[in-house]
Amino acid sequence: MAVIAKQCPEYKVIVVDINDDRIQAWKSDDLPIYEPGLQEVVEEARGRNLFFSTDVAAGIQEADIIFVSVNTPTKTFGKGAGRAADLQYWERTARDILKHSNGNKIVVEKSTVPVRTAEAMGRILNSGAGAHRFEVLSNPEFLAEGTGIRDLMEPDRVLIGGQSTPEGQAAVEELVRIYEHWIPRERILTTSVWSSELSKLVANAFLAQRISSINSVSAICEASQADVTEVSRAVGMDSRIGPKFLNASIGFGGSCFKKDILDLVYLCEHYGLPEVAEYWAQVVRINDYQKRRFVRRVVSNLFDTVVGKRIAVFGFAFKSNTGDTRESPAIDVCKQLAEERARVVVSDPRALGNARADLADLGSQIEYERDPYEAAAGSHAILVLTEWEIYRTLDYKRILASMEKPAYVFDGRNILDHEALHAIGFNVVPIGKAPLTSL
Ligand code: UGA
């Protein structure tokens, strides 16, 4: 919304939320989320045509177009628990819109939702006395965290789904007009609502599938002494496959991939397509396998026991340039190491607050240390779990001198210079390649 306000000064954008603390934070210098470049965008538009408020009813009344961006987490109860999307917040919002509206509105699904949610929402919204018309559009978001502003400014595409009726198409054109302020028309795709809703789930499923594919290959590489980086390069240079999203890792995290695949799996089951459901479910299973496999590799290299050993974790966020730890693979890795009774020291430039909350159950078995040098001191091993740039440029000679010997680096992201680390005396265990160890 901040980017829309920045790019379209003649539109007034009001962001409403029932959470007063969040709204106050959006009005302050300390925004509630960290995203490179966001502060500048908000500051440019705030007070000009971008406003934040807790008055939801007034926001609804004033708006011609309402973007609904409430969360749609995986259901934890009842039918579809653990897989289906929980739509209670979306439905409540639709009912609020109906209650407070005093004119026709375009309602835009920004949240990621199961296919045919717009249909259900349209039925709720148009269930009133019929005085006002509501057109429901699907406009899924494809930005990735950490590169959000760039992704919004230069998206590969913008997708807008609408009904084929004249009213539906007119609503689609209204939304196209907003994006046309800065995005070439040929990158703005218009489709049916169902295609748009499904495309969002499928895009995330394809991206996650690529990671699970290369991670499954990393296991074959370790077994066969091939090198996953070389394989991924050779495969990715085929222009039909492409080089992006082929970095082997400890597994994907983030609030979306797992949730959206589970949602897709649930939809397949709902439509009586168990083979298709099974196919996509395997992407999540390989991801869990990869995390377990990594921990097994750590333990077996550390002489089959980590009991009482200090292990430094470099990076806890699910990816670099964010403090977000939702579904971060580091959570499972740390929990599994704690089960093996290691003493884990977690370090991260932005995510220590979230890490403390995620690992609260483990109490004093986990330490938190912002400074990577302090975290590594006295440890038997360093585990690189997030690809933060700073980890590439640390003084590893100094770190080695402070560690127990033999000292190990397990590079869960393959971002360090393995040869150089080995040359100064580290035992290096990457993902999907032969370890560089000394006798
Ligand atoms: C993802 C999609 O990339 C966005 O297009 C989508 O809009 C977003 O979900 C969403 O649905 O909201 P995000 O979760 O922010 O974005 O982050 P990604 O860059 O996709 O990374 C996801 C995970 O995959 C991270 O843990 C990352 O480290 C991992 N990853 C990524 C790999 O392990 N290997 C790779 O080659 C790439």
Tell me what the structure shows.
The mean pLDDT is about 95. About 40% of the residues are buried. The protein folds into 2 domains: about 1-200, NAD(P)-binding Rossmann-like Domain (Rossmann fold), CATH 3.40.50.720; about 290-430, 3-Layer(aba) Sandwich (Rossmann fold). It is built from 17 helices and 13 strands. The chain starts with a helix and ends in a 9-residue tail after the last strand. Helix content is about 45%, strand content about 15%. α9 (about 195-225) packs across α11 and α9 packs parallel to α12 (about 275-300). α17 (about 420-425) links the parallel β12 (about 410) and β13. The chain is an alpha/beta fold and about 450 residues long. Bound molecules: uridine-5'-diphosphate-glucuronic acid (UGA). Uridine-5'-diphosphate-glucuronic acid binds near residues 245, 253 and 257. Uridine-5'-diphosphate-glucuronic acid binds near residues 249, 252, 257 and 319.
